[in-house]
Every structure is written in C-alpha cells, then in structure tokens.
Amino acid sequence: MSSNSKRAGSTLDKFFMPIEKKTKSTSNIDTSGTSSFLVTPNEDSFDFSVDSHIQDVLEVSKIWPKLWTKEQMIEFQGKNSWLNIKDGKLGCNTCIQAKNSIHFQKSNSDNRVRISSEWVGFEIVAAGSSRTNQLTSLRNKIKQHLESKAHMLAENILMNSSNKVLDKMFERISETEMDSTNRLFKTVYCLAKNHRPLIQFEELVQLQHKSMD
Q1: Where on the tree of life does the source sit, at the highest rank (predicted)?
Q2: How far apart are CA 121 and CA 89, in angstroms?
Q3: Tens digits of residue pLDDT in 103-139
Q4: Which one, of 189, 178, 181, 187, lies nearest residue 205 by Cα?
C-alpha cells in the first residue's frame, strides 16, 4: 500500500507540475500584456486635439516674427495698419503702394527722400542676442520708419490720390444732379409756356428717365 501511495503521489506531482508552470507562464504573459497595454495608448481613444492657445502660437509663428506672441502681433498691427509681413520679415504696405508714383520717384531721384528698400522689400528683421533686445530692436525700427520722411511722404501721396478720386466722384455726382435739375426746370417752363396742366409734369419726367435708360 505504501509503494502504491508513493507511485500515486509521484504521478500526481508530475501531473500537477506542468499545470503550475503553465499557470505561472500564463500569468507572466497576462502581466506583460497588461503592462504593454498601459504603456501604449489606444489610438482609438487617444485625444489628438491640440490646445487652442498652442494652435494660435503655431499660426502666428508661421506668419509673424517668431519672437512675437499673438497679443503682440495684434498690438503692433493695430497701431500700425501699414505693417505687413512676408516670410517672417516686416515690410511697409504704404511705401510699396506709393513707390511708383511720380512724386515719390522724383523726390527719390533728387535725393530729397530716400525710399527704404528694406521696408519695401520685406527685409526688416530683429537684431540682438536676447528676446528682450530683439523686441526692442523691432519697436525702434517700426517707430523710426513711421517717423521717416519717406513714409510720411508715401502717406501724403496715398491720401492725396484718394482725395482726388473722391473729388472727381463728387464732381460727377454734382454734374449729374445739375443736369437733372436743369431738365426739371425746363420741363416746368415748357408746361407753363404752353399753358399745359402741371399734372403732365410727372409723365414727362418718366419719359425723360426712360430716354436716358
């Protein structure tokens, strides 16, 4: 009976040993699998959205000088509507629009006013090793250009040209109104001279409008 008991015990040990190893191995696989799952995010549930402030900074950095924040960009452009940008460098819209005018070219050829090729060609960049120095550099360059004779001349040229356009437009309006008023007086005079009733005045005015169309 004792030998049979030993055999039975040995058989049972052999039978259960692989199960214990298998269970241990399975446990390791499950643990590593769980660990891998925790480390690697699920792409389906991962939030790829970027903070709106970061997006604003990225958009500004693509257009305006990288050292400017969005608030600084709005401030500078709000105070200087003529300010423009190309490839992160500053330029002047006013000088660009006025540079081909006869007045501007004559002043430049007479050496009375020098057109800033840097501002016209979008070549203005910040100078300095630190961000503080670079910000100061751009502020000074913007202020100096705003107060320069060339920029003020360009502003006057554009203002005068726009005023001339408005004057011509008002002249045309005045001429049209005068012609219309003269026709009305002539119509009234014709009716009175021929002793025609004034009720025909509206009909005649409508005929005049149709003939003009």
Answers
A1: Eukaryota
A2: 9
A3: 667 666 566 777 788 999 999 999 988 999 999 999 9
A4: 187
